[in-house]
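User: Sequence recovery, please. Input:
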C-alpha cells in the first residue's frame, strides 16, 4: 500500500483520536500523518494467505495474528500498519494498537519498497520482542526473511522451497504463500506442475 503525506505535524493523541473515525487508514511517522492507499488483488491474496496460515496454526496457542487493520506502535513512537503481525505476549497498552510483535510481514509494491526495505527494517528490528521480519514480493516470487537469531541477515526463498517461521514453529511452502497470486513466476510454475500431472 502506498502512502500520501498530509500537511503539518500531529500529536499522538490527535492521531489516535482522528484514526478512530477516519474512513482511510493513516500512519504516523515522525509526527507526520500519511494516508494509506488501497492494495492490489495480489497484495491482498498474499497477506490473506499468510494471515490464514498463521491463524490456523496458532488456534490453540496464546499467540495471535492480526491483519493490516491493526496498528503497530514502534519503539520510535511511530504508528505503522503492517500487512500481518503475530503477538504472543499480553499486549494491553491499547486495544487499537500493538507494541510487542514477534513476526512482522510486509507485502512489497513499487511505491512502498524503499520504506519497507530500509526505513521499516531499521525501525522494526529495534522492537525488542521481534524475532522475524518478512518481506514478500507481489509482482514476482521472492520472499525475504530477516531473523533475530541470524543477526538480522536476509535469507531469500523461491518457488519449490519451504520457509520456517522459528518464532511460531511453522513451516510453509512458498507456493502456499503465493496461492492464487497471478504473476509470471506463478503462471510458469503452475504450467510446469500441470504438464507433469
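Assistant: Recovered sequence (197 residues):
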Amino acid at each position: 500500500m502506498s502512502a500520501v503525506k498530509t500537511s503539518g505535524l500531529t500529536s499522538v493523541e490527535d492521531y489516535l483520536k482522528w484514526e478512530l473515525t477516519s474512513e482511510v487508514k493513516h500512519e504516523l511517522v515522525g509526527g507526520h500523518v500519511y494516508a494509506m492507499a488501497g492494495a492490489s488483488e495480489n497484495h491482498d491474496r498474499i497477506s490473506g494467505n499468510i494471515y490464514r496460515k498463521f491463524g490456523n496454526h496458532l488456534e490453540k496457542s496464546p499467540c495471535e495474528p492480526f491483519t493490516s487493520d491493526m496498528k503497530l506502535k514502534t519503539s520510535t513512537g511511530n504508528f505503522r500498519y503492517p500487512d500481518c503481525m503475530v503477538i504472543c505476549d499480553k499486549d494491553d497498552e491499547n486495544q487499537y494498537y500493538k507494541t510487542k510483535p514477534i513476526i512482522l510481514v510486509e507485502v512489497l509494491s513499487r511505491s512502498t519498497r524503499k520504506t519497507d526495505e530500509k526505513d521499516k527494517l531499521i525501525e522494526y528490528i529495534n522492537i525488542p520482542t521481534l524475532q522475524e521480519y518478512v518481506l514478500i514480493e507481489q509482482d514476482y516470487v521472492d520472499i525475504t526473511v530477516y531473523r533475530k537469531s541470524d543477526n538480522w541477515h536476509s535469507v531469500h526463498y523461491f518457488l519449490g522451497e519451504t520457509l520456517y517461521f522459528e518464532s511460531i514453529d511453522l513451516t510453509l511452502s512458498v507456493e502456499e504463500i503465493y496461492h492464487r497470486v497471478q504473476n509470471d513466476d506463478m503462471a510458469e510454475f503452475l504450467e510446469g506442475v500441470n504438464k507433469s500431472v
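The chain has a mean pLDDT of 92.
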